[in-house]
């Protein structure tokens, strides 16, 4: 069904459907080209990775909260990574601690919040919300998922090799990551990390190009750019960010592969290790950091923008009120996207980079706070004088807004290079980004799952379990990350196996233990979600066509949309997606496919003028000569 | 102050209880309400009000928790600043903190208050309010102005901190390696560093820092791998390098942090204004010590890269320097690295009996004559 133009699909839809009935199990559920199936594949992969990544964080949190603890009970899972001392007490290997930190970061940032979030919802919602039968290229879409799958397998294998997975933290700064002698994790584990990430980038590019192409080319009749739901704007900006920045990470990784395996010196210079001076000269470790953060910084927006997009939709729907400042939201996202490319070096204020460059990046970084603030204000004003329905999705969306504000504010301190001197690489940074992009993005993802579950699986998730899940997670996240700021202000460095060696960092044992306990409760509360998710897929209450009384096009499809999404013609779009509680209208929502001519009672004066244009929209004929 | 906070805390707790008890009554009222049309599965259920009230109650309790925890843990925030620029960054840290805390409380209050006030009610008329350009302009401008203020204060401080070190700064060569720090001083005789080269590094041969002994300036250089001394009240310039992987010099009390990069020397200068003894008296901890830590992940024992820092009164510092043995004295085998034509000069440092009296003028002359521009490499 790739790139088939709309009109042709209408004419041949019956044939198309007959064809699809013949699809076997493998083509339908495994090597599927249907965007909805691919979205579910991404979602389930993302959930599996999230569980793994969260459990890893518990292991190192136990080490940090209870450094004296006997970890022998973990020996059945972790094997030699737990060593027994002479008293028989199990101790976590410090190298494996670093490997866990590295893997937690890599898994959460790339496999959960990039693939699991953007992969799921871009795939699922773009065709459904713009009114397309599928992605521009279904085959490329399938390829994108399966390359991601191979990438996942490679990363998963790296967990089990003898020298352990990569251990140089998720930023893999050379020379540590380039020299096998420096760290066991820089051996085969690092090779597999690089291979896996190279595949991941390929997958992400295939996906991103597809998303942008689809949004530009396959919108249904009447769906002009200013009628797109904010989710679609967010996914498009995200895809553009990914397309422009991921290739830079690939080149950074490629040069690192050369340095590791072929004796080049892109990042290596003047190194003496293991009693030996290496011949490499003239390279610069700082070069890697520039290349890495050229992706690394846009990456945090790749993670958060889709979450903000989903939130916009959910907050408007459940406040029964139009999103406030639709255009301001689009401009803020565009501003964030543009600025995301020119703030990367704020991660590098104290790397020895020229301080003047630091000044420039500080200026640009603090500018990005402005559009972010505007988004926050718009969400809050959307709630104002609304009529809020607290579905689990809405609760998670409000949680996201709170995290985004709380975590974003500390960015103002970290973006100030003079203040960053003390706080760089301390727990203040850890607390900051876990709130603003970690927890906020996870909340966006959870909100999205609760909200679009009926469309994905044709059944409802259980609300009560959703509330329990929300409350424990929301309170838990704040209990974990709020005290972490305190630890950071006291100067505790990150990626430390323990702090007791330093008098300066020999306080706050109670806070660290508290954070660990809160983290354990929060992670185990996710079991409620997973149970609810799996149970509802099979035994949940049957969904109706439009359970949330929402305006966007996906709710005009049947309860279980088949391949092609709409059985008949694709609906035509006449209005923006946020006509909630319009004065004069009988219902508190007017879907996008309802023409103005059908709602004379609620039309605004300028909308009455648009009635004349409806005929024009209806008579659009797509140019069929361009496809394939 | 404490009483005021206690009163506020009690007030908030009472408020919370009121809110929670009100929920109960609302819940009872709601369960009686008639069932909505069956197709509308997303209709507000009987927990709807509880959730809305819960969000606001959460926020009220949070305020109490935040204020209490802040007071309880404040004493270990930002360990006492002991450098001149550190006092300034601390000041701006707290200014920014106040600004963001104001934002934090106002914005979150609105978020949770609106969740509470506008929880679903069958009879409420929703305001159809799509945009307001004046509002957008206001809340774009205010953050922009606040940001601009913070940026310019930050820029001023940053430029000062990263400016060139004063010419009279005490220079110290500090090198990170897996897993420890080594510091080198220019020596008391010529006060000039000998050059170094990573190709000369030799742990077994007693030259872990790669000091070039064909450079006569290196003869009186001395090194230390367990503690670094600096004078109080005098600018100190750290010349930072690493020999294997990235490290980062972090002196929490001095507000100093700078990466150590193999192949790219970095620097950081500062003035310590409290000696170790001053701090011991001030904190009432007789065994207090300044510490240097590593803050760039560098492998297995990253968490153990500690170096003690001793801040001396200037006179004590000079005395300490004089008491240190040059590298050549510590390890006379290094003499073999000295070229033949300089051996005579170097021998002064390898013999146990100092012959300083006769050689000293010569050394002084050489340092007066030149090399003043030749520092480290």
Task: Give a brief outline of the structure.
The complex is a heterodimer of chains A (628) and B (377). With 628 residues, chain A is mainly alpha-helical.
CATH architecture of the largest domain in chain B: Sandwich
Pair with the biggest interface: A-B, 125 and 111 residues
Average pLDDT of chain A works out at 92
- CATH 4th-level superfamily of chain A: Cytochrome c oxidase-like, subunit I domain
Estimate nothing, just give the exact number of structural domains of chain A. 1
Could you tell me the CATH topology label of the largest domain in chain B. Immunoglobulin-like
**Number of beta-strand segments of chain B:** 10
Count of distinct structural domains of chain B: 3
Query: Roughly how many Å apart are the termini of chain B?
Result: 57 Å
Radius of gyration of chain A, in angstroms, nearest whole number: 25 Å
User: What's the mean pLDDT score of chain B?
Assistant: 86
Provide structural commentary.
- The complex is a heterodimer of chains A (628) and B (377).
- Helix content of chain A is 62%, strand content 2%.
- Chain A has 628 residues and is mostly helical.
- Chain A has one domain: Cytochrome C Oxidase, Chain A, CATH 1.20.210.
- In chain A, the strands form two sheets. In chain A, strands 1-2 form a two-stranded antiparallel ribbon. A two-stranded antiparallel sheet of chain A has the order 3-4.
- Chain A is globular and about 80 Å long.
- The model of chain A is unreliable at 1-20 (pLDDT under 50).
- With 377 residues, chain B is an alpha+beta fold.
- Chain B has three domains: 1-30 and 44-120; 133-163; 170-369, Cupredoxins -  blue copper proteins (Immunoglobulin-like, Sandwich).
- In chain B, 44% of the residues lie in helices and 15% in strands.
- Chain B has helices spanning 2-32, 48-73, 84-117, 133-161, 276-283, 314-323, 327-330, 343-350, 356-369; strands spanning 170-177, 180-185, 222-224, 227-231, 235-242, 247-251, 256-260, 266-271, 290-294, 307-312.
- Chain B has a five-stranded mixed beta sheet with strand order 3-2-1-5-8, with no helix packed on it.
- In chain B, a hairpin with a 2-residue loop joins strand 1 (170-177) and strand 2 (180-185).
- In chain B, helix 1 (2-32) packs antiparallel against helix 2 (48-73), helix 2 runs antiparallel to helix 3 and helix 3 packs antiparallel against helix 4 (133-161).
- Chains A and B meet through helix 5, strand 3, helix 9, helix 10 and helix 11 of A and helix 2, helix 3, helix 4, strand 7 and strand 9 of B.
């Amino acid at each position: 069904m790739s790139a088939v133009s709309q009109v042709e699909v209408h004419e041949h839809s019956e044939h198309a459907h007959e064809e699809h009935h013949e699809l076997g199990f493998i083509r339908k559920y495994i090597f599927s080209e249907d965007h909805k199936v691919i979205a579910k594949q991404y979602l389930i992969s993302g959930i599996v990775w999230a569980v793994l990544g969260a459990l890893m964080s518990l292991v190192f949190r136990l080490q940090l909260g209870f450094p004296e603890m006997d970890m022998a009970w973990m020996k059945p899972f972790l094997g030699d990574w737990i060593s027994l001392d002479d008293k028989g007490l199990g101790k976590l290997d410090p190298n494996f601690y670093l490997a866990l930190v590295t893997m937690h970061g890599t898994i959460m940032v790339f496999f959960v919040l990039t693939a699991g979030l953007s992969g799921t919802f871009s795939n699922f919602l773009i065709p459904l919300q713009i009114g397309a039968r599928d992605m521009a290229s279904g085959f490329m879409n399938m390829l994108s998922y399966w390359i991601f799958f191979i990438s996942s397998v490679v990363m998963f294998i790296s967990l089990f090799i003898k020298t352990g997975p990569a251990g140089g933290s998720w930023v893999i700064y050379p020379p540590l990551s380039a020299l096998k002698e420096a760290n066991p994790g820089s051996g085969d584990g690092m090779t597999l990390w690089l291979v896996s990430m190279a595949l991941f980038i390929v997958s992400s590019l295939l996906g991103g190009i597809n998303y942008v192409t689809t949004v530009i080319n396959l919108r249904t009749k009447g769906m002009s750019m200013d009628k797109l739901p904010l989710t679609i704007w967010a996914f498009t900006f995200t895809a553009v960010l990914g397309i422009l920045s991921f290739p830079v990470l690939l080149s950074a990784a490629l040069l690192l592969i050369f340095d590791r395996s072929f004796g080049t010196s892109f990042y290596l210079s003047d190194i003496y290790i293991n009693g030996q001076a290496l011949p490499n000269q003239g390279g610069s470790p700082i070069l890697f950091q520039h290349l890495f953060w050229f992706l690394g910084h846009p990456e945090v927006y790749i993670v958060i923008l889709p979450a903000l997009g989903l939130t916009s939709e959910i907050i408007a729907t459940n406040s029964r009120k139009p999103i406030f400042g639709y255009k301001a939201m689009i401009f803020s996202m565009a501003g964030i996207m543009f600025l995301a490319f020119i703030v990367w070096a704020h991660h590098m204020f104290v790397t020895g980079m020229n301080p003047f460059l630091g000044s420039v990046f500080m200026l640009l970084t603090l500018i990005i706070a402005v559009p972010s603030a505007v988004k926050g204000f718009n969400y809050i004003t959307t709630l104002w004088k609304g009529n809020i329905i607290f579905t689990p999705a809405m609760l998670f969306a409000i949680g996201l807004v709170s995290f985004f504000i709380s975590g974003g504010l500390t960015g103002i301190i970290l973006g100030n290079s003079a203040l960053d001197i003390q706080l760089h690489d301390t727990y203040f940074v850890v607390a900051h980004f876990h709130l603003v992009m970690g927890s906020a993005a996870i909340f966006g993802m959870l909100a999205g799952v609760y909200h679009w579950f009926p469309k994905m699986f044709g059944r409802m998730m259980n609300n009560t379990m959703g509330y329990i899940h929300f409350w424990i997670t929301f309170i838990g996240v704040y209990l974990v990350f709020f005290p972490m700021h305190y630890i950071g202000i006291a100067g505790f460095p990150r990626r430390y196996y323990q702090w007791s060696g330093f008098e300066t960092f020999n306080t706050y044992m109670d806070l660290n233990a508290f954070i660990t306990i809160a983290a354990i409760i929060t992670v185990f509360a996710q079991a409620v979600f997973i149970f609810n998710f799996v149970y509802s897929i099979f035994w949940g209450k049957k969904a109706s066509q439009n359970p949330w009384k929402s305006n966007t096009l996906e709710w005009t499809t049947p309860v279980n949309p088949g391949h092609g999404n709409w059985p008949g013609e694709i609906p035509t779009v006449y209005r923006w997606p946020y006509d909630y509680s319009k004065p004069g209208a009988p219902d508190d929502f007017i879907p996008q496919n309802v023409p103005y001519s059908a709602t004379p009672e609620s039309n605004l004066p300028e909308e009455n003028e648009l009635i004349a244009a409806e005929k024009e929209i209806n008579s659009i004929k797509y140019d069929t000569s361009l496809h394939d | 102050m404490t009483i005021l906070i206690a009163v506020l805390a009690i007030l908030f707790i009472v408020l919370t209880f009121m809110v929670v008890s009100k929920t109960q009554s609302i819940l009872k009222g709601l369960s009686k309400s008639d069932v909505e049309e069956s197709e509308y599965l997303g209709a507000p259920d009987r927990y709807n009000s509880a959730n809305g009230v819960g969000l606001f109650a959460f926020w009220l309790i949070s305020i109490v928790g935040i204020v209490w925890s802040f007071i309880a843990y404040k004493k270990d925030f930002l360990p006492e600043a002991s450098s001149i620029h550190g006092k300034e960054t601390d000041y701006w840290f707290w200014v920014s903190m106040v600004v963001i805390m104001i934002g934090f409380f106002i914005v979150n209050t609105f978020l949770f208050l609106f969740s509470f006030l506008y929880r679903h009610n069958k009879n409420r008329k929703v305001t159809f309010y799509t945009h307001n350009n004046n509002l957008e302009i206001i809340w774009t401008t205010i953050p922009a102005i606040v940001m601009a203020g913070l940026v310019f204060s930050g820029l001023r401080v940053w430029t000062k901190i990263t400016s060139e070190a004063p010419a009279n700064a005490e220079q110290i060569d500090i090198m990170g390696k897996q897993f420890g720090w080594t510091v080198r001083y220019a020596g008391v005789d010529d006060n000039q560093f000998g050059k170094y080269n990573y190709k000369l590094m030799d742990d077994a041969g007693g030259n872990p820092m790669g000091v070039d002994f064909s450079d006569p300036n290196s003869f009186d250089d001395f090194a230390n791998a367990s503690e670094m001394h600096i004078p109080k009240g005098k600018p100190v310039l750290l010349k930072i390098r690493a020999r294997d992987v990235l490290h980062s010099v972090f002196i929490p009390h001095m507000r100093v942090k700078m990466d150590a990069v193999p192949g790219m020397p970095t620097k950081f200068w500062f003035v310590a204004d409290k000696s170790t003894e001053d701090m011991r008296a001030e904190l009432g901890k007789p065994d207090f010590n300044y510490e240097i830590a590593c803050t760039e992940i560098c492998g297995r024992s990253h968490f153990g890269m500690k170096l003690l820092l001793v801040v001396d009164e200037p006179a004590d510092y000079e005395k300490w320097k004089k008491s240190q043995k040059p590298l050549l004295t510590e390890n006379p085998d290094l003499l073999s690295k000295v070229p033949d034509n300089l051996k005579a000069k170097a021998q002064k440092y390898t013999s146990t009996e100092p012959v300083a009296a006769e050689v000293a003028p010569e050394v002084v002359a050489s340092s007066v004559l030149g090399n003043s521009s030749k520092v480290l490499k």
